[in-house]
Amino acid sequence: MKKIFLSILYCTAFVPVSSQDMDSAYIKMIYNKALREQQSYGWLEELCLDIGHRLSGSPQAERAVKWADSLMRALKFNVYRQECMVPFWSRGPKEQAWIVTRDNKIEVPILALGGSVATPPEGIKAKIVEVKSFDELDVLGKTGQVRGKIVFFNKIMDPAYINPFEAYGEAVRYRWEGAMRAARHGAAAVVVRSMTTAIDDFPHTGSMGYNDTTLKIPACAISTRAAETLSKFRIGNPDLEFHFIQQPKSGPDVKSYNVIGEIKGTEKPDEIIVVGGHLDSWDVGHGAHDNGTGCVQAIEALHLLKSLNIPLKRTVRVVMFMNEENGGRGGAKFAELARKNKEKIIAAIESDAGGHTPRGFSFKGDARKIEKAMRFRNYFTPYLADLWGPGYGGADINHLEDLGTLLIGFRPDSQRYFDYHHSQNDTFDKVHPRELALGSASMAALIYLLSQYGVE
Amino acid sequence: MKKIFLSILYCTAFVPVSSQDMDSAYIKMIYNKALREQQSYGWLEELCLDIGHRLSGSPQAERAVKWADSLMRALKFNVYRQECMVPFWSRGPKEQAWIVTRDNKIEVPILALGGSVATPPEGIKAKIVEVKSFDELDVLGKTGQVRGKIVFFNKIMDPAYINPFEAYGEAVRYRWEGAMRAARHGAAAVVVRSMTTAIDDFPHTGSMGYNDTTLKIPACAISTRAAETLSKFRIGNPDLEFHFIQQPKSGPDVKSYNVIGEIKGTEKPDEIIVVGGHLDSWDVGHGAHDNGTGCVQAIEALHLLKSLNIPLKRTVRVVMFMNEENGGRGGAKFAELARKNKEKIIAAIESDAGGHTPRGFSFKGDARKIEKAMRFRNYFTPYLADLWGPGYGGADINHLEDLGTLLIGFRPDSQRYFDYHHSQNDTFDKVHPRELALGSASMAALIYLLSQYGVE
């Protein structure tokens, strides 16, 4: 590395090369290499097809930890792990569900929501109360119409949002709070319409919550197509019942790890730039877009910089966070240790919005730091990735907010993301190699600039 | 329409609604309706699955003409056709090709290039000369090393271009000129590496050219994976031969049509805005992205404006161009008639770059007109479609350049486009409904602004 660095310095003594031109040249090198010699797609294939989905606490998650560890060692990063305890929850046998009318019994696809309790072995069979909001639920609950019934939250993710994450943000509370809210009114269970704008047969799981003041009732997600069927069948079928069986189990916490690969900075090694994705996934599909892509992009970003001998003044730390999906313990542990060790994590980039074509980055943190980072934006215009602005960081890195870290969310095109998210449909074949590589390159370019100039 | 228009005018007499606010409101209405009540995806399904691929002059192209005609009549556009003669070329029985070594014969996937002559019934079997450029070909040709051989143009589409259309522009001359150039040196035939950055088993066809001064020799496209195999096998196999059989036929021109659907402008009906795609496709796959998507987006754009009663001061003309792929006769005929009838076509938008997420538009024509149109750009920022600038129009609308028309190319994300282009792989399932609808809405919004304000 030193040799190239010195030769460039040497050149600049004679030829007027501005630092801006040099930065542009490095960034061009990064994109060229990512597109011509991409490795992330092969790594993702290993993670998705050899290991598969990998819920925290599962044997597959353990294998993913070992895989990430040995991959980053092979790339000559300084690799270590951070132990963290993660919740144990296991889906058990395949769920079953039926819409039951007087004359008919129609099987429909469901998935237990993550963290849900089991139904009795024979399942729960009860009449349906369909609502589209908590207000509707409360109105019905007050007149006793919810007691003993299954509450069907049929909130549609509004397709009119240009950014589907906004529609998700609006609808996902029914998944998270549904069981708690329905239990207050004496409901027997809840069925939640899957969080996607696609109308298809994939139920989408995801975390749900309980509290200590209400009964824990079973909660499942139903595919959007089945949700539409259920809603239609209710009309004219006052006796309609819903019947579902799910047998998930919870258990004591299990030991797991964040896996970290690092390259020390040459001038300011104490200033750290984090780049990461989460290694765990839901327990269906391959966890390809959520979030295999983020993992391999973070690893490839540092590998690009290292293999191109691009000078890094500040330390770059790749973090494979554990347990983003159902607890966030890895992210919390990482922040806890950073605080304990008085580390100066100046910026953290998270790729957890899928592996589609990059559009830009969103920034959260101190306004002056955001302003400084925003000055890098023009470098990304030739790469069509200059949609930059204040916004969300990421579920794992958000734990660093109190440390003054500038939080940066990688923002790819997201029109297709919720077709896959948390479902059987999130498979390797849904990822496009060029789109993935462009993400790795965008992240590498931003890391380079942050490492070169800091955020102060 | 009048009623809404008047009520808005009425409102503005009392409430200070700027025309900019009103334009924004209309554009919001357009996007909302496109995303919530999309019809283009269903239309595309009909075109792709009921009709399928539709090379000009084929019975399927004739069916597509009738389909477009009756769809636009059902939508209450003023529908008419423009007759044009198109070339007749038919692929014949499935091509066959083999790499032949002393010990082995490996079958590889090829497609005759569009317009190519046939091989003799037993095929052409000859040694291979591999080149990556015309310069290499000329060097070998001058020393007689090309005579009697099959020239293998193995030019790779450079994956480092951020916009794959640039890589295509660089590589496609080997498909178009290859046979002419190789024939000059006495080659027996040419095999051209498919125009895609994907490494897979789909050969990609497309137009090739002949001239009157050189012999017409057969030309085919080979899949990229087979191209890599062929290139590797040559090393250490000096006796390697390539053998291929293709039996396409050409015939006299056939009658076909552009199909046009129009809504007259209320204030300046003589000023016309054209929006179109091409109805024909290559004779493999479904012609989904190339260019079913462009057709249904153009139709949906006008349908959105009409069904929302959005006022259109200038005339909007949806054109389903015929024969873009192998002759451009429809585009030429449209321009010829526009000139003959002294029509004032102020702007023409073409969607022929696939149906992926919109990024923006490119403009070609008079600098002042471009400058005026560029002022609309900010309206598209909330819809993430504001990548605007001077650039390419479209193969069909480019014929209008001499008439002073402002040419506008719809620019979607194009990372995946060349995986599908001109191949068996360009099927309906590769199109995403949201991405498609966003394109319809972007085009409708731009048409509205052009219709409201013109380009002068």
Tell me about this structure.
The structure is a homodimer of 456-residue chains. With 456 residues, chain A is α/β, with parallel strands linked by helices. The first copy, chain A, is 36% helix and 23% strand. In chain A, strand 11, helix 9 (288-307) and strand 12 (314-321) form a beta-alpha-beta unit. In chain A, helix 2 packs antiparallel against helix 13 (433-453), helix 3 packs antiparallel against helix 9 and helix 9 packs across helix 13. The first copy, chain A, starts with a helix and ends with a helix. Mean pLDDT of chain A is 96; it is low at 1-13. Chains A and B meet through helix 2 and helix 13 of A and helix 2 and helix 13 of B.
The helix tally of chain A amounts to 13
Distance between the termini of chain A: 26 Å
User: What is the oligomeric state here?
Assistant: homodimer
Shape of chain A: elongated
Low-confidence stretches of chain A: 1-13
Q: Please state the structural category of chain A.
A: alpha/beta
The biggest sheet of chain A, with number of strands, parallel, antiparallel or mixed sense and barrel status, is: 8 strands, mixed
Radius of gyration of chain A: 24 Å
Proportion of residues in β-strands of chain A? 15-25%
Mean pLDDT of chain A: 96
Helix residue percentage of chain A:
25-40%
Largest interface: A-B, 24 and 24 residues
Q: Please give the number of β-strands of chain A.
A: 16
Strand order of the largest sheet of chain A: 1-10-12-11-13-16-14-15
What sequence of helices (H) and strands (E) makes up the elements of chain A?
HHHHEEEEEHEHHEEHEEEHEHEEHEEHH
